[in-house]
C-alpha cells in the first residue's frame, strides 16, 4: 500500500518538476501575493493610516488563504492531469486503489503546499518587521484545519469530475474563490450582512480566520474557534469521502471511468 | 483448450442508457492461450475488455479471473493482469523511464531498472529512455504502453489494438513478445482489426457484433460458422469482413 502511495507521489513529483504551471501555482503566485501585500501594508502603516494589528491580520489571512486555495486546487487539478494525459485506465486498471491514489495525491500536495507556505513566510520575514511573525507558530493548528477542509473540497471536486467528467473542471480552480467572500478572510464575521452570517458560520474557514485574528491580536489561540473549525472540517471531510465513494462506484457502473474526457 | 481457465465470463450484460453494449456474453480463456477478439467498431469489444479489469461494472452475469471476482479480489486480480489500450496513454511530461518506474512501483516489480531496460530493448526503445513521452511518435508511444503492459510479467494480458500505428518490423516484435507471454503460461486476450494477425497468433477467435458473440472457436470454425456453405477456401479476414458488413 505504502509503495503504491509512494508511486503516486513520485508520478506527481516528476510532473511538477517539468510543469511550469504547477511550479508557478505552488511558489510563484503565493510569493507574488505576499510581496504585493508586504508593500501595501507597509505603505498603509506609514503615517498611521492603518493600525499595525490590522496589517498583521491582512498578511496572516493572505498566507493562510494561499495554503487553503492552493491545496484545494492542486488536489483536483492533480486528478484532472490524469484525465488530460489519458492515464486513468492505466492507473485504475492496476492494483492501485482509488483511496491509495487520493492519499498519494494529497500527501504530495501537502509537501508542495508546505513549501509554498515556507516561501511565503520567508518573504514576509524579509519584508516585514512587525511582531506578526513571532505569532506564526500559533497559526499552525489553523493551517492544519484549512488543509483538512481543502482536502474535503478537493475530494468532493474530484467526485464531481468522476460524476460529470471534465465538463465541471472549472470547479477545480474556482471553488475556493467561491467560498472566499463568506470565509471572512480579511474582515470579521460582523462585517457580513446578518442574513449571510449563518452560512459563514457553517464553514470551517470562517472559524479559522476569526481565530487567527484573535491570535494575531494577542488574544491567544481560541479553543472555541479551533473546535468549531476542526469539527466542521471533519464533518465536511466525512461527507466528501462518502460522496466520492458513491460517485466512483457510479462512474464504474456508467462506464465514465474509461471515458472521463 | 490447454490448462485451467484464467478468465471465465458467464452471461455478462452491460447497457449504457438504452444502448446494449454487451449482451449475455460468455467465454473462457485458458492459461497459455491467446483468444482473439474481432468485430466492427461499437461491437462491445472494449467494453468487455474494460469489464475484465473491473473498470466497468457489469449489469448482470459474472466474471472470474483466476477464480476470483471483482470487487472483493480486485487487487489480487490486477496485480497479475495488465492492459494496453488505445484509450490509455502515459503522462506526456514524464520520460519513458520515469513513467515505467512509477508503474514498476505500482506493480511491485523486482529489480525495476533492469526489467525496464530489457523491455525497452525488446521494443527497440532503449534510445528513447530519457525522452519525455510527448516528444515520441504515435508508434513509439504505443510501444511504451506495451512496455508498461509487460512490466509485471502479467498472467492475464489484455491488449486492445496493440499493433496499431506500428511499423511491420516492430509489430512483429510485439507479436513475438505476446507469444512469449503465452508460452510462459499467461492468458492473453487480443482485440484487433488486423484479422490476419489474429488468425496467425490465436488458437481461438471470438467475433462480436452488436454486443453479442456471433462466433467463437478456431479461425477455421469461425470462418465456417460465419460464411456457412460459401466457406470454400475463404480466410477469417473475409469472414469477419462479411460479418461486419451485416452488423456494422
Briefly characterize the structure.
The complex is a heterodimer of chains A (261) and B (248). Chain A is mainly α and 261 residues long.
Structural category of chain A: mainly alpha
Q: If helices are DSSP runs of H or I spanning 4 or more residues, what is the number of helices of chain A?
A: 10
* Average of pLDDT of chain B: 89
Described by strand count, sense and barrel closure, the largest sheet of chain A is:
none
Give the helix/strand class of chain B: alpha/beta
Topology of chain B as a string of helices (H) and strands (E): EEEHEHEHHHEHEHEEHH
Shape of chain A: globular
Mean pLDDT of chain A: 86
Describe this structure in words.
The complex is a heterodimer of chains A (261) and B (248). Chain A has helices spanning 2-18, 20-45, 52-84, 88-92, 98-127, 140-164, 170-179, 197-201, 204-216, 223-254. Chain A has 261 residues and is mostly helical. The mean pLDDT of chain A is 86. Chain B contains nine helices and nine strands. In chain B, the strands form two sheets. A six-stranded mixed beta sheet of chain B has the order 5-6-7-3-8-9, sandwiched between helices. Chain B has a three-stranded antiparallel beta sheet with strand order 2-1-4, with helices on one face. Chain B starts with a strand and ends with a helix. The model of chain B has no long low-confidence stretch (mean pLDDT 89). At the A-B interface, helix 1, helix 4 and helix 10 of A face helix 1, helix 2, strand 5 and helix 3 of B.
Attribute tags:
heterodimer, A: 261 residues, mainly alpha, 75% helix, 0% strand, globular, B: 248 residues, alpha/beta, 6-stranded mixed sheet, 3-stranded antiparallel sheet, 9 helices
Amino acid at each position: 500500500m505504502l509503495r503504491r502511495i509512494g508511486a503516486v507521489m513520485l508520478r506527481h513529483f516528476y510532473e511538477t518538476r517539468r510543469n511550469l504551471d504547477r511550479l508557478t501555482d505552488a511558489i510563484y503566485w503565493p510569493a507574488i501575493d505576499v510581496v504585493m501585500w508586504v508593500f501595501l501594508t507597509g505603505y498603509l502603516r506609514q503615517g498611521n493610516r492603518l493600525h499595525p494589528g490590522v496589517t498583521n491580520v491582512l498578511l496572516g489571512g493572505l498566507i493562510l488563504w494561499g495554503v487553503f486555495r492552493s491545496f484545494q486546487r492542486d488536489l483536483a487539478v492533480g486528478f484532472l492531469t490524469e484525465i488530460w494525459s489519458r492515464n486513468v485506465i492505466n492507473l485504475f486498471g492496476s492494483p492501485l486503489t482509488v483511496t491509495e491514489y487520493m492519499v498519494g495525491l494529497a500527501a504530495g500536495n501537502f509537501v508542495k503546499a508546505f513549501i509554498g507556505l515556507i516561501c511565503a513566510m520567508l518573504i514576509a520575514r524579509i519584508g516585514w518587521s512587525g511582531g506578526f511573525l513571532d505569532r506564526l507558530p500559533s497559526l499552525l493548528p489553523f493551517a492544519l484545519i484549512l488543509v483538512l477542509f481543502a482536502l474535503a473540497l478537493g475530494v468532493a471536486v474530484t467526485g464531481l469530475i468522476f460524476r460529470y467528467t471534465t465538463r465541471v473542471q472549472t470547479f477545480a480552480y474556482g471553488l475556493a474563490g467561491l467560498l472566499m467572500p463568506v470565509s471572512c478572510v480579511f474582515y470579521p464575521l460582523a462585517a457580513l450582512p446578518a442574513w449571510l452570517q449563518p452560512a459563514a458560520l457553517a464553514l470551517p474557514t470562517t472559524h479559522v480566520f476569526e481565530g487567527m485574528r484573535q491570535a494575531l491580536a494577542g488574544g491567544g489561540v481560541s479553543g472555541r474557534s479551533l473546535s468549531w473549525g476542526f469539527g466542521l472540517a471533519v464533518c465536511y471531510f466525512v461527507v466528501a469521502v462518502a460522496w466520492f465513494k458513491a460517485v466512483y462506484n457510479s462512474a464504474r457502473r456508467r462506464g465514465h471511468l474509461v471515458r472521463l474526457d | 483448450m490447454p490448462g485451467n481457465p484464467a478468465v471465465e465470463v458467464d452471461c455478462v450484460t452491460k447497457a449504457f442508457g438504452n444502448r446494449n453494449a454487451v449482451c449475455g456474453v460468455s467465454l473462457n480463456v485458458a492459461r497459455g492461450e491467446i483468444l482473439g477478439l474481432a468485430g466492427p467498431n461499437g461491437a462491445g469489444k472494449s467494453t468487455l475488455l474494460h469489464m475484465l479489469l473491473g473498470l466497468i461494472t457489469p449489469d448482470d452475469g459474472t466474471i472470474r479471473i483466476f477464480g476470483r471476482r471483482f470487487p472483493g479480489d480486485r487487487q489480487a486480480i490486477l496485480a497479475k493482469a495488465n492492459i494496453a489500450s488505445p484509450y490509455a496513454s502515459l503522462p506526456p511530461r514524464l520520460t519513458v523511464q520515469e513513467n515505467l518506474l512509477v508503474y514498476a512501483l505500482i506493480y511491485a516489480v523486482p529489480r525495476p531498472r533492469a526489467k525496464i531496460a530489457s523491455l525497452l530493448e525488446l521494443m527497440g526503445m532503449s534510445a528513447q529512455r530519457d525522452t519525455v513521452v510527448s516528444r515520441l511518435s504515435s508508434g513509439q508511444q504505443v510501444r511504451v504502453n506495451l512496455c508498461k503492459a509487460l512490466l509485471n510479467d502479467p498472467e492475464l494480458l489484455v491488449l486492445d489494438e496493440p499493433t496499431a500505428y506500428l511499423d511491420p518490423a516492430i509489430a512483429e516484435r510485439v507479436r513475438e513478445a505476446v507469444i512469449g507471454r503465452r508460452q510462459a503460461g499467461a492468458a492473453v486476450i487480443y482485440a484487433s482489426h488486423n484479422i490476419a494477425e489474429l488468425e496467425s497468433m490465436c488458437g481461438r477467435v471470438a467475433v462480436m457484433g452488436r454486443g453479442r458473440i456471433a462466433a467463437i472457436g478456431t479461425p477455421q470454425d469461425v470462418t465456417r460458422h460465419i460464411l456457412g456453405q460459401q466457406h470454400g477456401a475463404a480466410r477469417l479476414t473475409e469472414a469477419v469482413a462479411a460479418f461486419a458488413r451485416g452488423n456494422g
